[in-house]
Specification:
Elements lengths: L4 H11 L4 E6 L9 H5 L5 H12 L5 H5 L1 H7 L6 E5 L2 H9 L7 E7 L3 E3 L11 H6 L6 H11 L3 H16 L5 H17 L8 H9 L17 H17 L5 E2 L4 E4 L6 H5 L2 E5 L8 E2 L5 E5 L2 H10 L4 H5 L2 H37 L1
Helix pairs in contact: 6-14, 8-12, 9-10, 10-11, 11-12
């Protein structure tokens, strides 16, 4: 818990959170999720984005067209993109802004979990999950990056296996999947690390019990995806067909995207966006932070951040917010001046009564 800016900086130092991305929220909500899912789980993101583009497409620059999903979010359209930042001070500002009577929270995710999509803008649009299920050629880079993430830590492999069990292994009729996940986890725990041989029985079971019946099995280049890609693709097939909104996809990696400077706030906020993977019937990827900090004394922290130049004017850097920042600053000065005037008036009244 942090009750001051100094406390917060000390926590970051002690916990080694320098190489993490973070997000600040001004209250503790049931889950971390993108705006489209906070408003209504049944919003058709693709249709909204397409309609928005049909109205304004002729006025867009080439950069805005390339980054249109982020552009849409910037102008208030609810999307599946979730704002994170490289700057823990920017996260702290958002944790302290609003809901003054409630504690804020800053959530941290390890940079090592990122699957970067920035260089592949054709994939940064609604409908990515369908393309991953059928393993389109364009998604090869993402499958390779997933493998790179999972190869970094045995912990990530364990998390991945538990996520597979949560999505597919706990379902009726999938007892063999559940058993093979358990066996693989036991081997990894006993040995202290994983070997690819540990995953082969699970892959065989997933291939035999794949949810696509008969001729509905799509032509997937499953053998070209490697061990981890093979597992990921098979599990997504279960998500696609189960259509159970109570299921959350829990993966130890996140698809991320660093938008171009379509607005100055992007650079000022050191923005990085998480593409929250989603499918059918409100099934979406869970965002599970590695570390969180509870924030108290919001007003005091906002004052200290303002002294460092982290304020509404800097964060948003548009005419509306600059005007709002100036208004609030001068209202504060006016209230202080009014209070001083009232105190002087009281002193004058007391002196006048004494003279009488």
């Amino acid at each position: 818990m942090a009750g001051s800016l100094l406390d917060y900086i000390q926590i970051i130092k002690e916990q080694g959170l320098d190489d993490y991305i973070s997000r600040g929220e001004n209250d503790q909500y049931p889950q971390i999720q993108a705006a489209a899912f906070r408003e209504n789980d049944h919003l058709d993101i693709q249709s909204m984005v397409d309609e928005f583009q049909s109205y304004i497409g002729n006025s867009l620059t080439e950069m805005q067209r390339q980054h249109f999903l982020a552009f849409s979010q910037h102008y208030g359209l609810p999307t599946n993109l979730l704002d994170f930042t490289y700057s823990p001070l920017v996260s702290l500002y958002f944790a302290c802004s609003g809901n003054a009577e409630k504690d804020g929270f800053v959530y941290f995710l390890d940079n090592k979990r990122k699957v970067d999509m920035t260089g592949h803008l054709d994939l940064v649009k609604p409908g990515l999950m369908n393309r991953l299920i059928t393993a389109e050629l364009e998604t090869d880079i993402l499958y390779r990056e997933i493998t790179n993430v999972l190869c970094q830590k045995d912990q990530y492999v364990r998390e991945f296996l538990r996520g597979i069990d949560h999505i597919a292994g706990k379902l009726p009729g999938n007892e063999r999947i559940h058993r093979e996940v358990g066996i693989a986890l036991q081997k990894i725990k006993r040995r202290g690390n994983y070997e690819m041989d540990d995953l082969e029985p699970l892959i065989r079971v997933l291939d035999r019990q794949r949810p696509f019946p008969g001729d509905l099995e799509p032509e997937i280049r499953i053998k070209d995806l490697g061990f981890f890609g093979h597992l990921f693709c098979r599990v997504l097939s279960y998500v696609f067909l189960i259509r159970n909104p109570q299921v959350q996809m829990e993966f130890p990696f996140y698809f991320t995207y660093e938008p171009a400077n379509i607005a100055r706030r992007v650079s000022n906020q050191s923005s990085i966006l998480i593409y929250q993977l989603y499918g059918i019937c409100s099934v979406k990827q869970a965002i599970l932070p590695d570390f969180k900090v509870r924030i108290q004394n919001k007003e005091e922290i906002l004052r200290d951040l303002d002294h460092m130049g982290i304020n509404e004017k800097f964060i948003f850097n548009d005419y509306d917010h600059i005007a709002s920042y100036i208004r609030r600053k001068h209202l504060k000065k006016a209230k202080e001046a009014e209070k001083t005037h009232q105190n002087l008036q009281k002193m004058a009244d007391r002196l006048s009564r004494k003279e009488e």
